Amino acid sequence: MTKPLHEIAPQSLRRLRRTLAVVLAIFFLPLGYAVGSYFFNGEARADWRSARRDSSGQAPDPAVVSEAVIQVYAARAVRWRGAFGVHTWVAAKPAGGAAYTRFEVMGFGIARGREAVRVHEGVPDAFWFGSRPTLLAELRGGAEVDALIDRLHRLAAAYPYNHEYRIWPGPNSNTFTAWLTRQLPELSVEMPPTAIGKDYLVDNAVFGNAPSGGGLQVSLGGLIGFTVAPEEGLELNLLGLSAGIDLSPPALKLPGVGRVGFSGSPAP
User: Fold this and answer.
1) What is the pTM of this model?
2) What is the pLDDT of residues 109-156, one digit of tens each?
3) DSSP per residue over 154-222, as a string?
């Protein structure tokens, strides 16, 4: 016998409330823990002006390694933003090159007319205002890696948000890095769940590839959506925050906290 409507409605409402409670717990409890830890440990009070910007010792020395190199890094963002997410960038040197070029987006100076995309010679693995970077991906080789570096330059010049920057939900530095890596699937980059802005698809697109260049991503303005891909596993995006599960290698992905489990990154 079919239940009366007045009995079905309260049951559906209770199920909806339980579902919402689980979703909020998955997204906001880890974020609260990460924010509390960040401020409790005093990282938010550190003086960014005097913070470390030197090499972390993870990039091959151009004087020793002559082959072409591409690396992708992530490091906790500056000041209070570091409680929530990371800043990402790509560094590369061609075969025989004496220095690295960094490809990144920064918001400093945008209001004064400065371009967001910064392609400049610099320390590839530098501490980001005191935060040690994590190496996300690396490619070394000959002509094929040099060809990818040429593509990096062309892509950086074509980035559609060169005069626009928003910390949340994007476009920001992570939007730029994810935009590059989507078009360079050879890098197989799995962006960390703390890379807020990576799910912001350009040109108001709803469907696209995952930041690793494969799989499927559905996103509404970087605010809500999901990703299914071999590199990323399954990720849910809510208000720019990412949570999910990865099977290869096994790990949970939590907002603010990052990846919990086996690391899928190259060893520093």
Assistant:
1) 0.89
2) 898 889 999 999 999 999 999 999 999 999 999 899 999 999 999 999
3) HHHHT-TTTT---SSSSSSHHHHHHHHHHT-GGG-----TT-TTTT--GGG-SEE--TTSSSEEEEETT
What is the domain range of residue 118?
54-261
Calculate helix-pair angle for 173-182, 143-157, nearest 10 degrees: 130
β partners of residue 92: 70, 101
The token pair that represents 111 in the structure block: 């209001």
Helices (H), the chain: 5-40, 143-157, 173-182
Domain count, the chain: 1
Q: Decide if 170 contacts 200 (C-beta within 8 A).
A: yes
Structural domain contains residue 8: no
- Tell me the residue ranges of DSSP E strands in 56-100: 68-76, 86-93
Extract the tokens encoding 212. Answer: 């690793």
45 is a domain residue: no
Residues 6+ apart with CB under 8 A from 219: 199, 200, 201, 205, 206, 208, 225, 237
Has residue 41 been placed in a domain?
Answer: no
Cβ pair 106, 116 in contact under 8 A:
yes
CB distance 186 to 148 below 8 Å: yes
User: Does residue 2 sit within a domain?
Assistant: no
Q: What would the pLDDT profile of 179-193 be if each residue is shown by its tens digit?
A: 999 999 999 999 999
Tracing tokens 């990865």 back to the chain, one arrives at 246
Amino acid letter, 54: D
